[in-house]
Amino acid sequence: MKTSKSIRSLLIAVPVMTLMACSSGPSEAELASERNRVAAEQAAAQKAAEQANVEKVRMEAAQRLQQAQEMAQQERDTLMSMQTVYFDFDRASIKSEFYSVLDKHATFLVKNSAQTVVIEGHTDSRGTPEYNIALGERRAQAVETYLLNAGVAASQISVVSFGEEKPAVTGASEYAFAQSRRAVVVYK
Amino acid sequence: MKKIQTFCTILMTLLSLMLVTRAYAQLNIVITEGVDNATPIAVVPFGWEGEGVLPGEIADVVTQDLRRSGRFNPMTMAQMPEFPRDINAVNYQAWVDKGINTLVVGSVAELGNDRYRIDFQLIDTLSGSQLADAAPVLKDGQLVAGQSQLIAGRSLTVTGKNFRQFGHRICDIVYEKLTGQKGAFLTRIAYVVVRDTNSVARPYQLVIADYDGENELALLSSKEPLMSPSWSPDGNKLAYVSFENGKPQIFIQDIYTMNRVMITDFKGINGAPRFSPDGKQLAMVLSKDGNPDIYIMEIATRKLTRITRHRAIDTEPAWAPNGKELIFSSERGGKPQIYRVNLSNKRIKRLTFEGDMNLGGIITPDGRELVVVNRTNGNYHIARQNLSDGAMQVLTTTFLDESPSIAPNGSMIIYSTLHEGTQVLSLVSLDGRFKARLPGVAGQIKAPSWSPFLR
To answer: How far away is chain A from the Cα of B198, in angstroms, using its nearest Cα?
Structure first.
């Protein structure tokens, strides 16, 4: 066991000696270059690590943004599922049961000031088309006023009345009439 | 960027609109209530001197026109005792025996190059039968019928494609001679057809047709609603409201050149355009100043004059035939009622008081009566009110009536109503005794507007 170890040492020593025999060892320039190389490698590694860190931060930020956007989108989707306010016959006043829905729209719009909405006013098919255009506008304006009072900027809201031209449900049933008497908050 | 936007807008408009396409509505007329004492009359099939078959059945057009007027009860061909081609061949007594005191006979001769000569005579068979006892009149060496039994007679040269039109013209003459009222058979109606909004790309159509539903032509097809067509007094243009740009705008379109011009694009409502009797002005409803008010625009200069100023809804302007007054619907008294404004001094007077509300008022061509949509006990019916004594008469028994428009001779009202869940056009005579329905083949049909007299 001992012999094998000394043989191994010899095996290493011989080539080294041979090398040393051929040259007079590394020059100063070679050593300096070697030091530089190591330093550069270290610097590169550090930079890579830093970049990885920045990337990580950026990714996390992007994730957070995406999450925020997803949440906003989710919020929007939720709002989209409750964008309609219904009215009583020949009335344009907002019923108290719709206050909470409109409050949610208002909160979202205040938070997202770049978001614009069109409020569409509609009526049932009773009465004349021209009168219903006027009534539909009143309904849409009632929703607009509610949102403005809740702090939404006027520039975010526009109003259009379709009167009785776009019924939600066609026909002459009370159900069709009730479904058609509405204002719809449409996100653009 | 601006250019691209403009281009995109034009492209979008082209995609959302199509000018002049086949219409799919094709109206029929179903008479739902006739007049018991309608005058019996017979229109004998016209004689034909030419190759092949007569290119268009004139007598049919005249017969249908007379029946649809509600004033006449034309005899069917099967009941006719004979088929004379002109007055000299008529056996007066045979017609008198069948209860026919008035007879239309005629003939068509081919002149070549698609030109035809049409002769017709309107005959009083009763005086004819009395004269028949005496000897026929000898005139210029020929044996001719005396003048007293000939009520009217014409000879005209036409081209083949005008056969239906000529039938209407003959009926105009017959109707005027017999009733003293000008016939309105050479007129058109404009209306809006709404097809299934889920399956049809451009479900909203603006359509014109002859008054009897023939020669239907869609002027415009759109993705978005079309409303309130109204004729210019020369019968060449229509003003209407289109939502093609996501908001209501008033357009005027020439029905022959198809040129269309946007007239208004104000914030809010741009609605209910109505040409003045001289065609130079357009009454309309705008809500740009806060709530719907009546305005008049001078078409040539686009200069606007505000007519009403009230926080209540003012809408549905309609001109008095003299052009000096407008009537309109207003909620200023609580529920909508009809008011009249004098355009020179802007003085306003309430006209209607009967029922829960009155809407959509128009004035008859003689200026004497008001036709409205009256709501009483929740039912919407067409009614008329005498402007001097204020007496109101409900004319219809249909459901959810709206948008009445009067024939230029004042004889008939066309309106929109709900029949078995579908919006259809209906007719009612001004006295309420004649009623007819004009069911279409497809879609909801509404907003009818009767043209002025056409030449």
So the answer is: 12
Low-confidence ranges of chain B (pLDDT < 70): 1-16, 19-25, 132-147
Q: To probe the interface with A, which of B206, B247, B402, B446 has the most A CB atoms within 10 Å?
A: B402
C-alpha dist (Å) from residue B39 to B34, B123, B254, B262: 12, 14, 39, 48
Mean per-residue pLDDT pooled into runs of 10, chain A (188 residues): 54 50 68 84 87 88 86 82 93 95 95 95 96 98 97 97 95 92 95
By Cβ distance, the residue of B336, B360, B400 closest to A125 is B400
* H or E segment and range at residue B415: strand B412-419
The ipTM of this complex is 0.89
CB contact under 8 A, B243 and A126: no
Q: Which helix (H) or strand (E) holds B209?
A: strand B204-210
Are the C-beta atoms of B25 and B216 separated by less than 8 Å? yes
Output the six-digit token pair for B106. Answer: 């005629």
Cβ atoms within 10 Å of A184's Cβ, excluding its own: 19
Do residue B360 and residue A125 have CB atoms under 8 angstroms apart?
no
Q: Tokens 């005792």 sit at which residue?
A: B81
Residues 6+ apart with CB under 8 A from B156: B117, B118, B166
Residues A129, B402: C-beta atoms closer than 8 Å: yes
Q: Which of B60, B256, B38, B80 is nearest to B168 (CA)?
A: B60
List all residues 6 or more positions away from B30 whose beta carbon is below 8 Å from its beta carbon.
B436, B437, B438, B439
Distances (CA, A) of B423 to B107, B191, B418: 41, 12, 4
Sign of the alpha-carbon dihedral angle for A67, A71, A72, A77: positive
**Per the CB < 8 Å rule, is B287 touching A160?**
no
Interface test with chain B among A90, A118, A128, A132, by most B beta carbons within 10 Å? A128
Instruction: For B117, list phi and psi in degrees, rounded to 5.
Output: -105, 130
Tell me if A170 and B418 make a contact (CB, 8 A cut-off). no
What one-letter code names the amino acid at B398? T
Q: Which chain A positions have a beta carbon within 8 Å of B247's beta carbon?
A: 160
Q: What is the pLDDT of residue A29?
A: 82
Nearest-angstrom CA–CA distance, B264 and B284: 10
